[in-house]
Specification:
alpha/beta; disordered C terminus; four-stranded parallel β-sheet; 212 residues; 9 helices; two-stranded antiparallel ribbon
Length: 212
């Protein structure tokens, strides 16, 4: 490498405080020989980092941003995710969209969901009539924001629920553990053979070219 190019790159790597590449590297005849080593270290450690860490998020929205902003080459190694599924209606739109991000995590094994299905609301009219001020927020658990979106998630290997979750677990877990459509262990392809109106399989007949 030309000396001028080498000096330019080395000087650009030095922080104004004086920190930068180690002196042994800067004084080396070919300091750029260290870069392939760094690349090998990254390629070896990156799958371990994403595969062994349990990534925790305080909401489906923050989890979704992390998933979509992580490069696919890294994202494919993510195995553990935990998040809190809030039941507040004001996050309904973000939550529904965010839950679809789980479908692109091919290596996801344990998914941990913290949820409080017994959330209750203060209701003045109920209190005045029955002497109670708290009522169930969701009498139909499927109306909890994004629960219907989670019902469409497939292909997970393990799902764990935490909190007040008995009904939600029964509603979701069975579907989430089913294989994805189109996989070898899942359902067959949706392609169908052509069938005539009388129910007999249609045969493709090659027609001779039309001459004008």
């Amino acid at each position: 490498m030309p000396t001028t190019t080498k000096d330019t790159l080395l000087s650009a790597s030095v922080h104004p405080s004086g920190c930068g590449l180690p002196e042994a590297v800067r004084n080396e005849e070919s300091p750029f020989n260290t870069f392939p080593v760094g690349r090998q270290f990254y390629e070896g450690s990156m799958p371990c980092f994403f595969g062994t860490n349990n990534f925790y998020f305080e909401s489906p929205d923050t989890r979704s941003r992390f998933v979509y902003r992580t490069a696919p080459v890294r994202r494919q190694h993510i195995r553990q995710i935990s998040y809190t599924h809030y039941t507040d209606a004001y996050i309904k739109m973000d939550t529904t969209t965010a839950c679809s991000s789980l479908q692109i995590l091919a290596s996801l094994r344990p998914l941990n969901i913290s949820i409080d299905e017994d959330a209750r609301l203060l209701n003045g009219r109920v209190k005045a009539r029955y002497g109670e001020d708290l009522i169930m927020k969701y009498t139909n658990l499927a109306n909890i924001p994004a629960i219907r979106a989670l019902q469409k998630v497939r292909g997970l290997k393990e799902v764990n629920f935490h909190g007040e979750y008995a009904g939600v677990e029964q509603l979701l877990k069975g579907n989430m553990l089913k294989p994805k459509v189109g996989t070898k262990s899942g359902m067959k392809s949706c392609k169908r053979k052509a069938v005539r109106d009388d129910g007999i399989q249609a045969k493709r007949i090659r027609q001779p070219p039309v001459e004008f």
